[in-house]
Amino acid sequence: MPLRLYNTLTQQVQEFAPSSDNTVRMYTCGPTVYDYAHIGNFRTFTFIDILRRTLKANGFALDHVMNITDVDDKIIRNAVAQNKTLEEYTAVYTQAFQEDCRTLRLETPERLIPATRHIDDMAAAIQRLAEGRHTYRSDGSIYFRISTFPEYGKLSHTDFSGNIAGARVDVDEYEKADARDFALWKAPKEGERYWEEPIGPGRPGWHIECSVMAIKYLGETIDIHAGGVDLIFPHHENEIAQSESLTGKPFSRFWLHAEFLMVEGQKMSKSLGNYFTLRDVLGRGYEPESIRYLLASTPYRKQLNFTFEGLKSAATAIERLRNFKLRLETDKFPEGADEEVAGRTAAASRTFTESLNDDLNTAEALAAIFEYVRDVNSAMDAGRFRAGNAAGALEFLKSFDSIFQVIEPTQKGGYIADSEVESLIAERSAAKKARNFGRADQIREQLLEQGIVLEDTKSGVRWKRK
RNA sequence: GGCGCGGUAGCCAAGUGGUAAGGCCAAGGUCUGCAAAACCUUUAUUCGUGAGUUCGAUUCUCACCCGCGCCUCCA
What we know:
Blueprint: E1 4-7, E2 12-15, E3 23-28, H1 39-57, E4 61-68, H2 73-81, H3 86-103, E5 111-114, H4 119-131, E6 135-138, E7 141-144, E8 169-171, E9 174-176, E10 182-186, E11 195-197, E12 200-204, H5 208-218, E13 222-228, H6 232-247, E14 252-258, E15 261-263, E16 266-267, H7 278-283, H8 288-297, E17 304-305, H9 308-330, H10 339-357, H11 362-381, H12 387-404, H13 418-433, H14 437-449, E18 452-457, E19 460-465
Parallel strand pairs: 3-4, 3-13, 4-5, 13-14, 15-17
Antiparallel strand pairs: 1-2, 6-7, 7-10, 8-9, 10-12, 11-12, 15-16, 18-19
The protein binds one RNA strand through helix 1, helix 6, strand 16, strand 17 and helix 9.
């Protein structure tokens, strides 16, 4: 089954393929680096990561641009308050963002670009919009005139007719002709950072960076544009207005939006104060993989209620997968290969892939692998699973983890050496043989204190790091 | 008010016009020197409420109730 994705623009699930050649041209809205990102933000970035990996699994190449918004009102305000330059201020959070992404095993986009690197391009685009009579000036700022773009509202499916056109609305201390109009270029205010450009001194509005960078790197019509649902309006609607006024072509073929992470029935957000940063959660002793699993396990178009109980349940689920992999790698199985087991492997693998291709149905994909784990554990217990089945099973696990990225534990240093573990296990086995269970249990306890868990199996002692 | 999403077992959650995936938790059992891991059994005659369409609806239609989001910065 080909990949199908829900397109906000058409409000339908549609078959996806890149428009030309094999490369997906994708733009996703990145963070505004005025503070640490919270795990609600990372829900969207995790969704984008699952999307990237699924696109690759479908054999597509990627050219993915993500912006880093490093100039906006909050950044300017905070930088000024801390007596720092914009660059000094944003460097801290840009770096933190990249570290957090690595921690969550989020792939780095092919191009991760700060907005301030393209101020000239933005000014040039605004100039061209002005030449096309899509703009007007007011108090030194430049606004986009929505009335010049009749299709405004097509993404958010909002009908703006009969709306306050011509009314003079005072927003953000700037004068706009129409409430829907938005700033392309903001006149400098006292003490604020600004850029000297042919269109006049100032700084870019929020929306223009995405249009300009997407078109510059990916072309006038891109394949996918993605972000959180709160960006549908006005951000993405405004991007469409600017971009399509500039090029006369559809801006993006597919628009994908991730739903919110909720806390106690409300969206997680800075302004509500009900948020946790990744660092907060890790500080409470949870593993990055658990967070990733939790964020990825509920399909992206459904609101996901965050709880620490959910995080614990994710950790247990991951443990089950890890135990399964360890058993595949360490148990001794009879020679040959069982056809029924091989058939199960193929079927589960197919279900897994098709679930993801069905608009990234991660819940169903997880169900496929867990059902498989139970079946195979059962086959192992019954002696039906054979040595020749192990490679296929491990391969399926590998393809699972190439999307979910939760099985391999994050390395933590300071461990007891393998050889020492092995020699203690040997000593314990000898003690057991002599029926000296006191000593055997003492060794097991001792190892447990160092994070080593022993399991006695028919094919010998199996151990793992916890 | 406009637009959109959702209400499925203790919790999380998938799903289909033909009779309820999966994960976590709980109880009992098998295996084990004891554990651990794993497996088995039990846990929604029922999918917010009411009506309708249908041979048959959790799945379609309508109404209603409840929750959430966007409409202002926001992933």
